[in-house]
UniProtKB/TrEMBL annotation:
Keywords: Amino-acid transport, ATP-binding, Nucleotide-binding, Transport
Transport among keywords: yes
This protein's name: ABC transporter ATP-binding protein
SMART domains attached to this UniProt entry: AAA (SM00382)
Family designation: Belongs to the ABC transporter superfamily.
Record flagged with keyword Transport: yes
Domain ABC transporter: 5-240
Coiled coil region boundaries: none
CDD domains: ABC_TM1139_LivF_branched (cd03224)
InterPro entries according to UniProt: AAA+_ATPase, ABC_transporter-like_ATP-bd, ABC_transporter-like_CS, BCAA_Transport_ATP-bd_LivF, P-loop_NTPase
GO MF annotation, one: ATP binding
């Protein structure tokens, strides 16, 4: 098993003056792996991702990325440290072309155009379908193609770890398989992945690791096949199975 690219320890986070939503979460993501966070509605999955990418400042705990403490960095600084993020919604500018979306994504993080050409080539290698549509408006793409563009934009600055918040949300079933294939292509290109997914079984097929989040805490971390073959997967998912402590894989 590879070294962790991301280690989260005793993380607490919440909104404004409200109580903690993330209540001491701890887990790790292996370098080169696809890891998937699952858990019931309201468990805090999106809040966890927001606190990892710097949209929400953690109240305590630590986030270590590539052996550096990034806990208190803001979102652009975390992106420069190698963390890419694809939000669930509003993840491309629909009134801009594919090429313009990619350039903007690069320039926002890299602060300039040096390296832009190489970044575009790297992304087009992963998503060849986007090459000939570069001038097309993002708003005219299918849901699946738009999701690929969102991945492509997040890849422009060259992240080492990509965080995806429910990439299959809102996609019609015929595009879901295509989207998971796109996640796999990104991973095959050497980018580690941490995603939230409600399409649990499909996500586990391409994942190495399952991370079960319930009530703001990680109840289990285990190899994806073990999760899929668990005799009471529903209880495991809901956090009521007999798993006493996270099992680090
Ligand atoms: N901006 C916000 N301000 C205050 N509370 C929020 C905010 N966003 C989410 N919450 C609360 O945080 C809790 C966890 O929500 P979150 O969206 O992180 O869970 P989730 O596991 O991603 O849920 P789902 O699977 O339904 O998307 C919920 O009680 C929610 O109401």
């Amino acid at each position: 098993m590879s070294d962790p690219i991301l280690t989260v320890d005793a993380l607490r986070a919440g909104y404004g003056s409200g109580g903690d939503i993330i209540k001491g979460a701890g887990f790790s993501v292996s370098e080169g792996a696809i890891s998937t966070i699952v858990g019931p509605n309201g468990a805090g999955k999106s809040t966890l991702i927001k606190s990892l990418v710097g949209l929400l400042t953690p109240r305590s705990g630590t986030i270590t990325l590539n052996e550096a403490d990034v806990t208190r960095l803001n979102a652009p600084a975390k992106a420069r440290a190698g963390l890419g993020y694809v939000p669930q919604e509003h993840n491309v500018f629909r009134n801009m072309s594919i090429g313009e979306n990619m350039t903007l994504a690069y320039e926002f993080i890299a602060k300039g155009t040096k390296g832009l050409k190489a970044a575009r080539e790297r992304v087009f290698d992963i998503f060849p379908d986007l090459v000939h549509r570069e001038a097309d408006m993002a708003g005219n793409l299918s849901g699946g193609q738009r999701q690929m563009l969102a991945f492509g934009c997040a890849l422009m600055p060259g992240p080492s770890l990509l965080l995806l918040d429910e990439p299959s949300a809102g996609l019609s079933p015929k595009y879901v398989a295509e989207m998971f294939q796109a996640v796999k292509s990104v991973n095959d290109a050497g980018v580690s992945i941490l995603m939230i997914e409600q399409n649990v079984k499909e996500a586990m097929v391409i994942s190495e690791t399952a991370i079960v989040l319930v009530s703001g805490q990680v109840r289990a971390q285990m190899p994806a096949p073990e999760f899929l073959n668990h005799p009471d997967i529903h209880a495991l998912y809901m956090g009521t199975a007999d798993v006493t402590a996270p099992e680090t894989v």
